[in-house]
Amino acid sequence: MGNHVLRYARLSEHRFDVELYRFNPDSKSLLQALALAKERSRVMILFTLGSTAAAILKMTEELGMANGEYVFINVHSTQGDNYGWTNQFSLPDAKLNSSYPNSWLINAHRSFIYITYHVVTETLKTLNADIAVKTEKMYNFTYSPGIEPLDGFPVPVSYDIVEIFAELVNSSRQANGENDGAPVCSGLALANSIAQRRFSLTTGAMYVNAGRARNLNIDIFGFDTRSMSLQVFASYNWIRSQESRLQWTRNESNSFDWPTKDGLPPRDVPLCGFSGTEGLCSEKGSSLRTTIVIVVAVIFALLSGIACFVWQQIHRTLLLDCNWWILNASCLSESMRTADFLYF
Fold first, then answer.
1. Parallel, antiparallel, or unpaired: how do β-strands 43-46 and 71-75 relate?
2. Taking the complete model, does pTM exceed 0.70, yes or no?
3. How does pLDDT run across 108-127, given as a tens digit for each residue?
4. How would you label 164-203 residue by residue, b for 16+ Cβ within 10 Å and e otherwise?
């Protein structure tokens, strides 16, 4: 998946650099990969399991990446026990505790976007219940609480495959007619007829492109600070016209609650630059440096004055032993008389 995205990104007309990093899912490798990526990029597109993405978010504080200036986007075509669920990124403790100590972890989740296939559970509650009953009866398998059969990728795809094949066969019979009571069918013809076609299925409308690949409808999740969990912020549906494929479930201008200083989406160049000392921080840094110079100068002047005062006091104390301002015989001593001769 990463190579595929990298290839298309290089063909894009947009001017941005894309680099591909591979890492092992252990803590040390993750931390090293994240530190390396931080030096070169601010948008991290992850193609990994939910558990690995959650581990990465917990490392952002250590690397100073939980300030909203870095974006983490995890892309996964499916959800499941082996791949991860969106509920892995919920923070129930933060919801119950208004003074949640790990505020940086909330900020890291606010910088996180999860992109996965569109879930059809809400509109197929009856079908979900029927599948769950049959699964338990036939395979002695029970779905975890809060997870429906159609939430996972395999179940809806299985339904789609059967229905697509049935529709192709029926349309082929109608197009070719009957030959001695037997339909004229060709496997190759059926395969070719699936391209550039829309299907109305139990799980919803679906489109197959010219390459005979299914264009998957997706949901875009963002972190909601009220529920402290991922919620659908937008969806992308291939069935719609190109102009309306992307639809926001919230106001587009303030959909994501970014933890940046001004609450706006991260800029191409951070407010303080990539070094952290540019732009707005440069002005603050200059005034801070000016203040430091003034303070140092004042301290130096005070220390110099104190040093001069102390030296005078010590010198005066030594002279006071002889009461230098009083003429006293005890302070007088004999010395050899000398004379200077000037010659002209």
1. parallel
2. no
3. 899 999 998 887 766 688 88
4. beebbeeebeeeeeeeeeeeeeeeeeeeebbeebebebeb
